[in-house]
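Dear colleagues,

As part of the handover before I leave the project, I'm documenting each prediction I ran so the next person doesn't have to rerun anything. This entry is a single chain, and its sequence is reproduced below.
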Amino acid sequence: MRRQASTKIVATLGPASSTKDRIRALVLAGVNVFRFNFSHGSQDEHADRLAAVRELEDELGRPIGALMDLQGPKLRVGHFGSGKAMLVTGQRFRFDLDDVPGDQQRVQLPHREIFEAVEPGTELLLDDGKVRARVEKAGDDYVEAMIEVGGLISDHKGVNVPNAMLRVSPLTGKDRNDLRFGLDAGFDWVALSFVQRPEDVAEARRLVAGRAAIMAKIEKPSAIDHLEAILDLSEGLMIARGDLGVELPPEEVPGLQKRIIRAARAAGKPVVVATQMLESMIKAPSPTRAEASDVATACYDGADALMLSAESAVGDYAGEAVAIMARVIRQVERDPLYRPYVTAYAAEAQQTADDAITQAASSVARTIGAAAIVTYSTAGTTTLRAARERPGHPIIGLITRLGTARRLTVVWGVRPFVCRDALDLDDMIQKARDAAVQLDLARPGQALVVTAGLPFGTPGATNMLRIAYVSERDG
């Protein structure tokens, strides 16, 4: 019996993982979803990689998810006359709109939105926080700041403004062009960068128009303040811990990770933990013990998926990174403490037939020792509801739309299985038996707990529970 891990793996494609053979190796090592980072590479390169993923999907006969990660706005200083400047702790430094090359005293900051948002006391972080400045005086087109943590700053280094709401759209002209390309190419998920408020997600929703699912990246402190509203407008969340850790004290990030995971689980929406999970494996064949523990912690918290970034995109040990992440996940999910940890938080059920049936399915499966829970769905709502319960049984998502099945590859515990529309209830039950056998999740004589919405094709309606048994004929 093949019991795949419940926690999924997202791997970023890049120069180290561009060929079909390398992509196949990553899938066989445990990848469920591939991330395409639009901060790097051309559209043609992304198109070639996506074509390889789709070809591999056909060969293996199972859905593979594809996530396009938009770059978002990049706030950067201008250039220096000598290419760099050493800023000294305690000195005063000016940022302005003047495109004259910078020096030891000033540099261009070509983002009027920053000048509009800051005030005395606002912190400015340069080069991922390596250099820190505090605003002392702000005008319409300049800022005078005190350097609190000095260091070397060079051309076009990034600027973060953690304590201000910037009037910046999360979608630049490049992003809009990439988004049009990605939607036409058929990406399943769109990861939206630089989300500060619900309106940012709403803007993207209008452009996506239902052609893909939106995953809001939580990387700005202001997004934490509007987490529930952002979650309402998104189909999923990504915890971008690297950027979040630049703008927040590092001691706050672990607790926020748990809070965000819990919020997403309560909403029944997938949440991906990302950034620096096995970062040492970019150049080393094995991770640090601390990194292995970090991966394990996200599993114990009940995250839907864990993501590899540079490890699989440009690392020297891309396949090994996936394999080790998969090993850690399997070890955690075999741990007797895993079930108590992952079920310690249970989403509060609403007083609806949908939630009642879904909770009952998990309970019945546990009581009768079922081989799997099977959900029959068109839009995936029934399957998402089942995953929210974090049952101790595999979830087979019988899905009538390939696009929906691909989106569900990132969801905890779900094995998407594409099938034709059921003719009637008996046909649907038979499809459940067939899927369980084909996925090697059930043997003759074993029970399946099947949930669906009747009449078929009614989005969001989960109102039927049925126990079915796999027969010798099915096997």
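The longest strand covers residues 131-138. The two ends are 13 Å apart (CA to CA).

All the best with the project,
I.
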